[in-house]
Amino acid sequence: MPLYRLHYFPESGNSYKLALMLTLCGETFEPVWTDFAGGVTRTAEWRKAVNEMGEIPVLEVDGVKMTQTAPLLLKLAEQYGRFGAETEDEKFELLRWLFWDNHKLTGYMATYRFMRAFTEKNDPQVLKHFRRRLEDFLGILDGHLQHNEFAIGAKPTVADISMMAYLHYPSDEHGFDFGTSYPAVHGWLGRMAALPGWKPAYELLPGKRMTNYAK
């Protein structure tokens, strides 16, 4: 069986995506806490030794370091035969929502949440811009989930794991009340949390936490 080591920090939703996927597939991993807030990923030494792209997460598989969450989720789905797609139409839909999430939902939520909660001084106008964009994206997702149990239909896939990761964190971090404003998203998050073996990020990803200035 593969030996997994996951380089992460607890607030990283992208790290959580891989941790959750492995957990739902019945696998364990060695957690490697990374001092992201301390700037270690921006050092030349770390980038040379761990990830030339300067990003977290990094998944080591039998000692081989692999990066970029979306292709890793797809690789794991194929490897374990879980949370993937079956038909060509499903494969297209899975990629469509996975890429949309990476470019839009995760892309904006990760930045907005970091600036809002984990940056001591931020620009209110920048936050306002990001929030407006996120409200649009969340509205799109809510409309889609009003007619679909999961991203591509009746069963969860890695597209769902990718989209839900940053949304499941505490509301005092991202500042949204999904139950009130986006009830279909709220219901879908509940269905994801009901999957056998599901655990929240701060349970799967231990270690020193960053200061939350939004509390």
TrEMBL record:
Keywords assigned: Transferase
Single annotated GO MF: transferase activity
Matching Pfam families: GST_C_3, GST_N_3
Residue span(s) of domain GST N-terminal: 2-84
Domain GST C-terminal: 87-214
Keyword Transferase in record: yes
Keyword Transferase: yes
Membrane-spanning segments: none
InterPro entries per record: Glutathione-S-Trfase_C-like (IPR010987), Glutathione-S-Trfase_C_sf (IPR036282), Glutathione_S-Trfase (IPR040079), Glutathione_S-Trfase_N (IPR004045), GST_C (IPR004046), Thioredoxin-like_sf (IPR036249)
Highest taxon listed in the record's lineage: Bacteria
SUPFAM superfamilies: GST C-terminal domain-like (SSF47616), Thioredoxin-like (SSF52833)
Identification of the protein by name: Glutathione S-transferase
Organism, scientific name: Bradyrhizobium nitroreducens
